[in-house]
Amino acid sequence: MNLPLQPNLSPRNTFYVPVVAKFFISHGFAALWMVVSVYVSLPWLYDLADVITFPVALLIIGGIAYIPGYLNAFLVISLILDRQPPFKTEWPYEPVTILIACRNEENKIVNTLQYIKNQDYPGDIHVVLIDNGSIDRTSEEAKITAECLGLSLRIIREEVPGKFNALNTGLKEVNTRYVITLDADTLLHQSAVRYLVSRILSAPDDVCAVAGAVLVRNSRKNWLTKIQEWDYFLGIASIKRLQGLYQGTLVAQGAYSIYKTDALKEVGGWPDAIGEDIVLTWSFLRNGWKVYFEPLAVAFTDVPETLTYYIKQRSRWARGMIEALRVTKPWQQPILFVKYLTGVNLIMPYLDFTYTFCWIPGLVLAFFGVYWIVGPMTILVLPLTLLSYYLLYIFQKSVFQKLNLRIRKNILGFWLFVLCYQMILSPVSVWGYIQEVLLLKRVWK
């Protein structure tokens, strides 16, 4: 077999900028951007203050413009300075176990196992499927498929409901140094496992997990999936790249990530939480360990095709963030970068609330010629947003080229994502925060 050369996503920079320097340079630029933004927007601020008082006006504009602008500027400069470290090896032989916790997935598990079998990974792959109380033929279909493919598969029946419980049951059967979690509806690119294992083997010893890049498979279904394609491709990917740069990826998502088995067992496995992967990742970070992100380790998942399912999923993610903040406070994190990254989540409810209850009503008023909140000044936010997405698009395009993938043409979805997506996401997140505060019943699907 002719092994490909190591991918070089960007020219090697002989002048190395330390991570801590990147951190403060990016913050310096973001602070400068905010100062300019405040100066330019003073007429807007004063006009709104005449209507609702200066403190309230500052609170509203801060939530819909100043702070988001600061965070976006920090993101843009960080991405410009980012350089993905090279692999020490691209063809590791380390045995690895894949855990699949599933319930009633007979229609999807066959495909998932076939894509695992088609991996170009030269090492041994052991699959442990935890059937979490299925009432269909999930286990039977998985067994037949594994036998036909010659795939190493062990099936465990776990009747106690809960994904966290199923994964912990599977963890007891893991004998390899590294374990990968994979959702039953997630399909792996043929090099996904190889790149994920390569990254964790190439990382420093204090890296205990690496999140893979999860993208959308069913984007052609309708307008909602078209928008989510860009959310995963640009939005979520950019956040993970930023967090990975500062060695504190905040979610090693259960859909596709790799962990050190000993680290998982040391923190007690997955917690009983609606956002079990978020709380788990923050527990790693609290222990002084680091979590990376590998953009070349690509997997494709099905995203919600109905608004109802989307609301359940994203409100669950918002609840998971609040759960993580309750369990581990940002100031309890030992690493400076992680203090900041987790600390940003403290202000996310404020940003979502102001967007939902101020910006959206302000947009309605603007249609009637009342520009108290939304007006010509808000257009100034768009160039920086488009710049950040352009940088991500260029990087993601280079990733796709290395993986022999093609970016789908989805122009409608892109503009809906840029112009309208936050108007869907913020209210849904607010609903998730309210659910968690009121301790409403958990809903996974």
From TrEMBL:
CDD domains: CESA_like. Gene3D superfamilies: Spore Coat Polysaccharide Biosynthesis Protein SpsA, Chain A. The chain crosses the membrane at residues 20-46, 52-81, 353-374, 380-400, 412-434. It holds the Pfam family Glyco_tranf_2_3. Its EC number is 2.4.1.-. Coiled coil: none annotated. It comes from the Bacteria. Keywords: Glycosyltransferase, Ligase, Membrane, Transferase, Transmembrane, Transmembrane helix. It is an enzyme of class 2 (transferase). The keyword Membrane applies. GO terms for molecular function: glycosyltransferase activity; ligase activity. Belongs to the glycosyltransferase 2 family. This is Poly-beta-1,6-N-acetyl-D-glucosamine synthase icaA, Glycosyltransferase Family 2 protein (GT2). It comes from Thermobacillus xylanilyticus.
